[in-house]
Design a protein that fits this description.
Two copies of one chain form a homodimer. In chain A, about 45% of the residues lie in helices and about 15% in strands. By secondary structure, chain A is of the alpha/beta class. Chain A folds into three domains: about 45 residues, no CATH class; about 130 residues, Response regulator (Rossmann fold), CATH 3.40.50; about 120 residues, Rossmann fold, CATH 3.40.50.2300. In chain A, strands 2-1-3-4-5-11 form a six-stranded parallel sheet, with helices on both faces. The longest helix of chain A has 16 residues. The first copy, chain A, binds a DNA duplex (16 and 16 nucleotides) through α2 and α4. Chains A, B: GO terms for molecular function: DNA-binding transcription factor activity; transcription cis-regulatory region binding.
DNA sequence: CTGTTAGCGCCTTCAA
DNA sequence: TTGAAGGCGCTAACAG
């Protein structure tokens, strides 16, 4: 390895203390626990901070205090639009409490989960947020043993590692199927991503319908191109398809585009329901029916639970079901289109 | 403050060393610099790691070695779709080199820039990636003084803080205007976000057209709903509009939806060009002409420059222009629609 | 190849 | 209200 750039001796609290004419620890307290220091001293220290351009070293502080003031979040991929509001709300809520987010991309590959968790843990986060459940038993065991607050999100199960903010994907699938059946549609199809949660939704859908339905499974990332392919595939399986449930609004967008390209009228010839209620769903032509999930609320709640635990409070309700609801729009409004 | 949870005395390198029957530093070297340790010792240490469940503490290591193995990235908001491929590629490239990303959301508000940078700097990142330029003079000064590698992205200027990977927004606007003019369209309009880079593109557009053009400025976030409003606004200003340039594909999507809702044929009645070449652009009906920018390449290049500098190498080409190109599709193909 | 020594910058514990 | 030690977990720098 080539020589590293010479370490720039940065301004430390020591320099601030000297500048202010107080001891190191007094300077420390003036900044992090002002209540126990006289106002005069605080003013002197703050001025010294200005003069020296001091920026605290949270790495050093965290070493002794055992609070890194960071939270690690594990997402399959940043570009999965579904989780964006959650990550955004999480970042904002944590920031308001002085915490920073460390992001880890795990893909949908369970085998990478443990390795990635270890990497993140080596940064000693004060909490961990997972999008999805922790699947690897080794990882579950490790997390429990570390006694770090953990929030699993976007799903529910009866054996949380610690805390949980999500909803039932089985019920989502079931609800969409019930909705389709209530409309009198019989020839149903599914366009779905291949991830775990989407599969569970499919399971709920099928079990409510009562029999298997034509399904097009598309690999990640779930986007418009895949949606177009998926509809082509479904129509090949059943040219008389009446309604399609899509595991994401991006897929649904592709399904709609492909349907329109084939001259199918929505919803007269084909009804479409998406999942996620993306910001564009309401503004498409026709507007897209979708399953709404409050992703931002998931992020805020996760942050809230984490912060409570970081401050030593007990959390009574450790599993929060945020629910979901079907937003009916023109793409499934019989009589329209 | 309530009592903090009792610190769980975690497994340290000390425990590993004792378990392996070697000294602390030997254990350290076996893990981080195996080249200088005998194979037998390495094996013993690795086994001790397994037995004890040791996970290194990078905070402690970083304190001494002055390398935190983190990179801070400052984005306006995670949900700005434009930057997603960049952030994703950045995360992946850094991960491959053992670095983690710390994400800071700054909004488009320049006044928050310095505060956020200070927060991030207190984590002592080994490098900083900005989406956009550093605007605040105080922040520029501070970054220079810290001598941390900094990459400004998604833009170019003649006075980089340190390194730069981007393209000219002025040229983008100019190119789109030139393209419209070459098609013979005279009644032009702009639907644009209110951020700095979008404004510069507008400037380039107007200066090539040679006179002001009807403009609808929409606040962030740039999405389909705003696009629909924007077209309504533009048509109110000029009912005979022939072509619209949009500062994002999301806006363009809204413009297209609004046009279709009004019975306008694309592109016969109205031609539309977006910016960003989002993954859905090619699959819309009609397919959307857009300005393609390789966001993932920006992320990869930024990571590459940073890693070089972190390893003490000189970087010769400190400003990289990744360019752009107009992808022509049906939404501007005269004769179609 | 291995070990000893001395901190990194800050905060906790005790004492004044 | 302030200060003096000591140590968090690890790794550079130097010895053996």
């Amino acid at each position: 390895m080539p020589p590293l750039p010479k370490p720039t001796k940065s301004v430390t609290l020591h320099d601030v203390a000297r500048e202010a004419g107080v001891s190191l620890i007094t300077a420390s307290r003036a900044l992090s626990n002002p209540g126990v220091v006289s106002d005069k001293t605080i003013a002197r220290v703050q001025q010294a901070v200005e003069v020296t351009g001091y920026i605290p070293n949270l790495l050093a502080g965290g070493l002794k205090s055992r609070r890194s003031m960071t939270v690690a979040a594990l997402v399959p991929a940043i570009s999965v639009a579904q989780f964006l509001p959650t990550v955004q709300a999480l970042t904002e809520s944590l920031d308001a409490a002085g915490y920073q987010l460390i992001l880890g991309q795990g893909g949908y590959d369970h085998s990478r989960e443990e390795a990635l968790l270890n990497t993140l843990i080596s940064r000693r986060p004060d909490g961990i947020v997972m999008t999805g459940l922790v699947h690897s038993p080794a990882a579950r065991e490790r997390l429990r043993h570390l006694r770090i607050p953990v929030v699993e999100t976007w799903d529910l199960s009866d054996r949380p590692v610690d805390m949980m903010v999500g909803f039932s994907h089985l019920k989502v699938g079931s609800a969409v199927a019930g909705y389709f059946l209530s409309k009198g549609w019989k020839r149903l199809g599914i366009a779905t991503g291949d991830d775990h949660r989407a599969s569970i939704r499919r399971e709920g859908f099928v079990s409510t319908v009562g029999h298997e339905v034509p399904t097009a499974v598309v690999p990640a990332p779930s986007n418009m191109a895949r949606g177009r392919q998926a509809l082509a595939e479904l129509l090949a399986k059943d040219p008389a398809l009446e309604a399609v449930y899509c595991s994401s609004d991006q897929l649904a967008q592709g399904v709609l585009a492909e349907a329109q390209a084939r001259g199918l009228r929505i919803p007269a010839d084909l009804a479409v329901c998406g999942f996620g209620d993306a910001d564009f769903a309401a503004h498409m032509e026709p507007a897209l029916t979708s399953v709404h999930v409050d992703g931002a609320a998931i992020g805020r709640l996760a942050a809230q639970l984490l912060m409570q635990r970081c401050q030593g409070h007990e959390v009574v309700q450790r599993v929060v079901d945020v629910g979901f609801r079907i937003i009916e729009r023109r793409s499934t409004l019989a009589g329209a289109g």
